[in-house]
Amino acid sequence: MRQRKNLDVSSTDSKTNIPKSSKNNKFTHPLLKKVFFLCLFVRFVNAFLVQTYFNPDEHWQALEVAHRISFGYGHLTWEWEKGIRSYLHPVIFAGLYKILAFFHLDKPWFMIRTPRLLQSIFSAFGDFYLFKLSQEIFGDHVAKFALFAQLTNWFMFFCITRTLSNSLETVLTVVSLYYWPCIRPTASKISRGSRKWGLATAALACAIRPTSAITWIYIGLLELYLTRDKLKFVLLEVIPIGTLIMGLTFLVDRWMYGTWVLVPLNFLKFNFLSAGGDYYGTHVWHWYFTQGFTVMVFTFLPFSLAGIFKSKQWKLSGLIAWCLAIYSLLGHKEFRFVLPVLPIALMFSGYWLATIGWPDKSNGRGKRSPSSHDRCSGKLQLAVLFLAVSNIPMAFYMSMVHQRGTEDVMNYLSVEADSGKVKSVLFFTPCHATPYYSTLHRNLPMRFLDCTPRIEPLFIPFCSDEKGALDESDQFLVDPAGFATEFAKNWSIPSHIVLFDFQEKLLKDFLALHNFEEIKRFFHAHFKVDRELQASVAVYTLKGQ
Q1: Distances (CA, A) of 22 to 139, 187, 202, 260, 314
Q2: Using an 8 Å Cβ cutoff, are 296 and 342 in contact?
Q3: What pLDDT score was predicted for residue 533?
Q4: In a 3-state reduction of DSSP, which class is residue 24?
Q5: How would you class 220 by CB atoms within 10 Å of its CB: exposed for 0-12, middle for 13-18, buried for 19 or more?
Q6: CB crowding 301-336: b at 16 or more within 10 Å, else e
Q7: Which residues are 461's β-sheet partners?
Q8: Mean pLDDT of all residues in the chain?
């Protein structure tokens, strides 16, 4: 039978002389408790500082669904009608909303802030387990720098405390990797139940987001290749644990949908077999390598690449390459899809930083010359300063400034609605451009422009342009004034209209004709992203109201 290859676990790394902590007291060391509370504090602050709009799914596929579960109203997008989303992720936040309602805390401030605070707790566990994983593979010295990279990387700060399913998937991925024997340098001191915990967490990640299977196919095959008890692994661990987690997920979906729905199968049909995701835009095959993942890693990139080649931990670096390659085969690409492997890349940058800060022994006598130590210390300080200066301002700007208007406008309307000043709202914006009932938290009539793709029975979407019929959102963007004029022929006049400044300029006459006046304006962005510049968001109300 094939034996696992045990690597050297001596007090220092044989190539870099980076010190490794004792394996005997690692898990009871007080440092771990301090590390966790540091992570928790940073992520709490992180959650409060994130005040911008990133991706509609943060609200429309999580909080909006949770709000409907908890309070009986909230909009369900077409994905929920077609059964390609699992309720497992939204029910977490539904539980939070129920707790807030029980204690009569379902007020605007709590409804807006607490979901991200809950996610920040999950995120802190992800940071903590990345530290522990780095500890296991490289030792304490590297773990400290890996944690530094995780906490200061701009995209991790920008995204990990958001209520996206990708954020929780990332946490579960890091936690699970810690428990897999095939990832560790040696499995000799790992507990028997460790792999079972890894399997359960991996299955949970797949239940929440089926595309997580891309990661676990790689890890599972690696474990199958390295383990001695292959039949036991498959028959007594993979199948029973996978069946249990998926069975519980099916029961949750059966309860919420009211009928049996195989979400993973529907998800596979839409996103892979029919390329349904392409309806939302496509990118060139190399986008993750040349733009997407590169932007996410940002200035940590050269350090990550150097760490990969210096450490020679090909199993983990292979996981990054595998995920980027498989996701590159899909036409529709987004930054958040590859978020689960970002912590691994940052861990490698931590490895390289540790090598900078720990000079090689000189003269073969185990001593380091003062000049060598000073040089390495100076390089390390410059590297840390460079990474902090290039990432932290970027994190703050993207989290607190860029595209904040659509969050601010709903926060404002929620306070106004709480005091009875809002009767109904019309959004003359691209669809899903703002949060919705989960932020307003009042069962008032609201209307946004629909952008539901036309779906055939087998979930094969086709571009509505090809059939000669644009959706409402596209019609409005093509001709704002013409669309608004036709729309107003059959509307129940709203008390408030929300729109971006670009369309506002084209609707001045329309708004004046229908007796609307501006009452509030919110800054949104300094530069455009995927369409014309949306510099501000304006709120109009009927005169005299």
Answers
A1: 9, 16, 29, 51, 24
A2: yes
A3: 82
A4: coil
A5: buried
A6: eebbbbbbebbebebbbebbebbbeebbebbbbbbb
A7: 455
A8: 89
For residues 503 and 501, give the distance between their C-alpha atoms in angstroms, rounded to a whole number: 6
First to last CA, the chain: 80
> CA neighbours within 13 Å on the CB side: how many for 541?
13
Nearest alpha-carbon partner for 96 in 66, 56, 57: 66
- Rounded distance between C-alpha atoms, residue 87 and residue 61, angstroms: 9
> Is 533:496 a contact under the CB 8 Å cutoff?
no
User: Which residue type is seen at 76?
Assistant: L
Least confident window among 78-82, 200-204, 300-304: 78-82
Q: What letter represents residue 226's amino acid? A: L
Q: Which two tokens stand for residue 447?
A: 């209307």
| Residue partners of 443: CB distance under 8 A and separation at least 6 | 71, 72, 73, 437
**CA 378 vs CA 12, 19, 187, 233: distances in Å:** 22, 19, 37, 48
Region for 333 from its dihedrals, namely left if φ exceeds 0, alpha if ψ lies in -120 to 50, beta otherwise: beta
Q: Within a 10 A sphere around the Cβ of 347, how many other Cβ atoms? A: 30
Quickly state the pLDDT bin for 62 (edges 50, 70, 90).
very high
Residue 9 CB neighbour total at 10 angstroms:
15
Q: For Cα atoms 132, 134, 135, give the angle at the middle one, nearest 5 degrees.
A: 60
Q: Please say whether the beta carbons of 408 and 522 come within 8 A.
A: yes
Q: Give the residue-averaged pLDDT of 479-484.
A: 95
Alpha-carbon distance 432 to 501, whole Å? 17
Q: Which residues contact 532 (CB under 8 A, 6 or more apart)?
A: 502
Long-range contact pairs involving 143-147 (C-beta distance under 8 Å, separation at least 24): 143/350, 144/350, 144/354, 145/349, 145/350, 145/351, 145/353, 145/354, 145/357, 146/346, 146/347, 146/349, 146/350, 146/351, 147/35, 147/39, 147/350
Give Cβ neighbours of residue 483 (< 8 Å, ≥ 6 apart). 472, 475, 476
Gap between the Cα atoms of 169 and 213, Å rounded: 11
CA distance 464 to 487: 20
> Does residue 66 register a pLDDT over 90?
yes
Closest CA to 58 of 435, 422, 516: 435
Locus of tokens 């609307």: 516
Q: Are 119 and 167 in contact (CB under 8 A)?
A: yes
Tens of pLDDT, residues 214-258 = 999 999 999 999 998 899 999 999 999 999 999 999 999 999 999
- Residue 14 CB: number of other CB atoms within 10 A? 9
198-200-205 Cα angle (round to 5): 95
DSSP state of 339: G
